[in-house]
Amino acid sequence: MDGYGPDTYGESFADVYDDWYGDVSDIGATVAGVVGLAEGGPVLELGVGTGRIAIPLAATGLEVVGVDASPAMLRGLAAKPGAASVRSVEADMASPPVEAGHFSVAFAAFNTFFNLTTESDQRRCVASLAVALRSGGCVAIEGFVPPTTGMADGGVSLRMAAPDQVILSVSDHDAENQSIAGCHIDISPAGVVSRPWRLHYRTPAQLDALFATEGFTLERRNADWAGSPFSDHADAHVSVYRLH
Ligand SMILES: C[S@@+](CC[C@H](N)C(=O)[O-])C[C@H]1O[C@@H](n2cnc3c(N)ncnc32)[C@H](O)[C@@H]1O
């Protein structure tokens, strides 16, 4: 899709995001995990969206800064109770314009790091985090583990069907470039709405190598925010990279 930019996902999904993805991952475990890493210091969330994680995180008393490229997502955040305790920054998370040496921890929840759609943007992001973190700070990345047996090529599936609405999910997987381009096509009497998305996914080993280039080392990897052991069979991971 031509013209796909840092704000495309958020601008396309903001009106349905909380309905569709409000419970997509464990908010309480994510908040507890980040609180444990922050040790009272400031937190930076990449792709903060509508504040699903950031608002309850800020309610614990931590300073929380959330970066997002989508004005519509940030308007959704601003409209929620507790939003005033989150400082939102409208920017591309590939190079967030935040204070250098300020943060104890930065994190990207629920595959959000893979929303950086090129390797070069992911590299720029990691380099920016190395600048934004305090010495000894860390980054936590939550992502899916690409199956070693390979991923489907894509196709069309039915996400939802009702007498007055049909939502089709279309995707195209480029295995060589580890990219998926998709779109939800929402058809109702009001018209047709396209909600495009893209991911540039990485294996855990590729993330380790990427973070190592900026001086991070893998401190621990779990299967989730609650600390479940990671194994070869895990389909997701939370990886913590420490800056030395
Ligand atoms: C999957 S949502 C996650 C939102 C939130 N972290 C959560 O867990 O509910 C991804 C978010 O990242 C934002 N995003 C995607 N690409 C971005 C980029 N390059 N820079 C900044 N934000 C981006 C989107 O606008 C969206 O709000």
The run of helices and strands is HHHEHEHEEHEEEEEHEE
At CATH's second level, what is the architecture of the largest domain?
Answer: 3-Layer(aba) Sandwich
Helix/strand structural class: alpha/beta
Please report the distance between the alpha carbons of the first and last residues: 40 Å
Mean pLDDT: 96
Q: For the record, what CATH class of the largest domain applies? A: Alpha Beta
Which characteristics define this entry?
alpha/beta; Rossmann fold; 2 domains; seven-stranded mixed sheet; four-stranded antiparallel sheet; binds S-adenosylmethionine
If you had to describe this structure to a student in words, what would you say it looks like?
The protein is an alpha/beta fold and 244 residues long. The protein folds into two domains: 8-146 and 201-243, Vaccinia Virus protein VP39 (Rossmann fold), CATH 3.40.50.150; 154-198. Helices cover 24% and strands 35% of the residues. It contains seven helices and eleven strands. It has helices at 8-13, 17-21, 27-38, 54-58, 71-78, 119-132, 204-212; strands at residues 43-46, 64-68, 86-90, 103-108, 133-144, 154-162, 165-174, 179-188, 191-200, 216-222, 236-243. The strands form two sheets. It has a seven-stranded mixed β-sheet with strand order 3-2-1-4-5-11-10, sandwiched between helices. Helix 6 links the parallel strand 4 and strand 5. The longest helix has 14 residues, at 119-132. The termini are far apart. The model has no long low-confidence stretch (mean pLDDT 96). Residues 6, 9-10, 47-49, 52-53, 67-70, 73, 92-94, 109-110, 112, 115-116 line the site of S-adenosylmethionine.
